[in-house]
Amino acid sequence: MKFITTSMAVATAFIFLISPSCSKKSSSSPSCKLITVIDQYGSTTNTINISYNNDGKISTIQGTGSSPFKKVFTYSGNLMMITTSNASSVTATDSVVLNSDGLISYSMRKDASNIKTVYTYTYSGSQLLKSTYQYNGGSIQTTTYTFTNGDLTGSAEGSNTAVYNYYTDKNSADGDFLKLVQLLNYGGLYVKNAHLIKGFQQGSTVENFNYTYDNTGKITGLTATTGSNIENVTFQYNCN
Predict the structure, then answer these.
(1) What one-character-per-residue DSSP string does the chain give?
(2) At residue 183, does pLDDT exceed 90?
(3) What is the pLDDT of residue 234?
(4) Spatial contact of 10 and 224, defined as CB atoms under 8 Å apart
(5) How many Cα atoms are found within 13 Å in the side-chain-facing hemisphere of 167?
(6) How buried is 96 (Cβ within 10 angstroms: 0-12 exposed, 13-18 middle, 19+ buried)?
(7) CATH architecture assigned to 33-238
(8) Average pLDDT over residues 150-158
(9) CA 85, CA 70: separation in Å to the nearest integer?
(10) CA-based nearest residue to 194, from 178, 225, 172, 177
(11) Which of 77, 85, 146, 213 is the most exposed place for a label (fewest CB within 10 A)?
């Protein structure tokens, strides 16, 4: 699993948003924005830098290293546009529609060959009930979701199922694995968990997550372990 070009199956089934600022223990504490993600997987290291506009929304996500890319975000009402490019050309354009709760209701990605991938999302309140996926006008695939105590605990697409578990004593925060996958791949939200993801199992694949913190409670490191494979991610913030 790599965050920049995530290969695990749940990356295409789940889209998560990292909030623009991290929570603090006191309302008088400065707000913090995640600005740098350093991802080390084996001998490969990639650095991702995040910038924000004057409204505190993400304006660019840019990756350097073995897989360089740049995502540019623009906003108009409830519409978010994301243009992704590599060193030489635009590789994809995403059109994302947000509902009144700020959750994704519709997303369409058009790649450089004009092939379209379309997602739709159905909610009960703020909890996701189901999503649909359609690639290049083909058959529509539907995934259903189960929540327990404010956390996504199960998903199913036909016989393909996954289960998720959480650190129930730790609130979800910037640096949470699921939020990070969302941030780097999509920049929009359709699942918001109450607690920090601890691990998941999909078929025979089991992945577990451990976190480190600074003295203010911000997540500064994430270790993802799948069998003998270990990925280490560190985070840097701008607080003002």
Answers:
(1) --STT--STHHHH--B---SSB--SSTTSPPEEEEEEEEEETTEEEEEEEEE-TTS-EEEEEEESSS-EEEEEEEETTEEEEEEE-SSSEEEEEEEEE-TTS-EEEEEEEETT--EEEEEEEEETTEEEEEEEEETT--EEEEEEEEETTEEEEEEETTEEEEEEEEEEEE--TT-HHHHHHHHHTS--SB--SEEEEEEEETTEEEEEEEEE-TTS-EEEEEEEETTEEEEEEEEEEE-
(2) no
(3) 97
(4) no
(5) 14
(6) buried
(7) Beta Barrel (2.40)
(8) 95
(9) 5
(10) 172
(11) 77
Q: Is the pLDDT of residue 155 over 90?
A: yes
Whole-prediction pTM: 0.83
Residues 6+ apart with CB under 8 A from 128: 103, 121, 122, 145, 147, 152, 190, 191
- Token pair for residue 231? 């990925």
Task: State the amino acid at position 54 in one-letter form.
Answer: N
